[in-house]
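Late entry, written up from scratch paper. The run itself happened at the end of the previous shift, but nothing got recorded in the book at the time, so transcribing now.
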Amino acid sequence: MKNTLWKTLGLMALSVFAVSCTQEDDDDMGKAQAQVMVVHASPDAPNVDVRINNTIALTNVAYPNNSSYTGVNAGTTNFKISPTGTTTYVIDATVPLSANAYYSVFAIDSVSKIKPAVVTDNLTAPATGKAHIRFFHFSPNAPAVDIAVTSGPVVFSNRTFNDQATTASLANFTPLDAGTYNLEVRLAGTNTVVLPLPNVALTAGKIYTVFAKGFVGGSGAQALGAQVIVNK
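Output as recorded:
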């Protein structure tokens, strides 16, 4: 992992449109809302458009970028994702959203197997001097991994691809002391480092999601790496 990991955050400029709270339909005014972030995490998929309840919400989203949180009317909600400028939907999923809750919707896996991963985001403020962090394994062909402090303890152990889909607690955030960490991705249960993550700065009061991206053996934008999202 390059020392410029955090600079990827500067590439997250997206064309984000209001979905429900600013639509002209006055009937939507005052409805309880959820807040939804969409993340393009499919390494070989093209730029995509995102429709929420058949209304364009995001356009031309590039891998591995994410949107800001967008207000969506609570209740049964349909998400459609298509290559930019088309209505060829590679994801068409309907999920229940609760009022006043926060969610992340990831488009994951290789483009031939692309699917959504929906997680709840608990954005409760960290305790004084703490940051919150969680990890998702979204590298389709990577083995199980541990995330550890360099030459130190394991923070997240034995994580496998999309494992939070079957174990919801893996989407929870972990409190850590604020500071700058040298982290590393290891083959699960070993000291073999497959990806160093140096100089990961965790600011007190902030909440972060880190996800493994790309392919083992991939090159360029599709190379194995890690992406950092500041949820709050």
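Residues 1-27 have pLDDT under 50 and may be disordered.
(Scratch paper discarded after transcription.)
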